[in-house]
Amino acid sequence: MHLAVTDRPLDGNSALEFCSAPGHGAVDLFIGRVRDINQGKSVLGVSYDLHAALCSNVFAEIAAEALDQWGRETRLWLTHRSGRLEVGEASVVAAASSRHRDEAFKACRYLVEQMKHRAPIWKQEHYVDGDSEWVKGHALCGHG
Amino acid sequence: MTTRNAPADSLEVQLFGGFRQFVPNGTLLVETGDAKTVADLRREVERAFGGDDNALMLLKASAFATDRRVLDDESERFPSDEPLSVLPPVCGG
To answer: Which CATH class is domain B10-87?
Structure first.
């Protein structure tokens, strides 16, 4: 598996190359990009803040859970950007390959959904009108 | 986080995300006093934020963590020899 957070541009092709094996007939790739509108507000860009050390541990936990569910031979890739991104830039790349498509689809989706709910990552949207706002998210505590 | 720079009976906690609008440098010095559990530490962080209602509201929805894991049991003793952080609700992707 390849798991990382980085302030450098993300590359989907690297994920596809990594998630490859002679016996793997399926590879699923997800790329999340900064979009130009959110809840009716025009977005210029997004700043990502993250807790790198804890993020690495959470990514490892999520990937281990995916391997438990869809097999140890599944190949996984999960990378997330930090810092300021402009509209259209990739913020997250996830990929999974396996013998058949069902496992690849499910494992890739699991990486993305669990990352969004559990990884210590935050985003601040910057709007065309000059305003900025931290986006509301998922509480990691039971009482949030 | 706990640091060598913090005075005795105090520690620094790292803040992320929305907390940066209240503490731009992302570090809050907290008096620890007799604080031993995560719940104790939460009360001390509340005190450090004073009467800032917006910060306190965000804190209420936040978890405490080390660099290794989220401290999701409020009755747990927090480690005094590891960096500590306050994590507001997350939204990667």
So the answer is: alpha beta
Answering whether pTM is above 0.90, one says: yes
Which domains does chain A possess? 2-130 (3.90.1170.40)
B65–A54 C-beta distance less than 8 A: yes
> How many beta carbons lie within 10 A of that of residue A104, not counting itself?
24
ipTM: 0.91
Mutation target to probe the B interface, by most B beta carbons within 10 A, among A79, A122, A135 is: A122
Instruction: Say yes or no: B4 contacts chain A, CB-CB below 8 A.
Output: no
Which helix (H) or strand (E) segment holds residue A27: the answer is strand A26-33
Chunked mean pLDDT (size 10), chain A, 144 residues: 98 97 98 96 97 98 98 98 98 98 98 98 97 95 70
B92/A142 touch (CB, cutoff 8 Å), yes or no = no
Cβ–Cβ under 8 Å, residues A59 and B72 = no
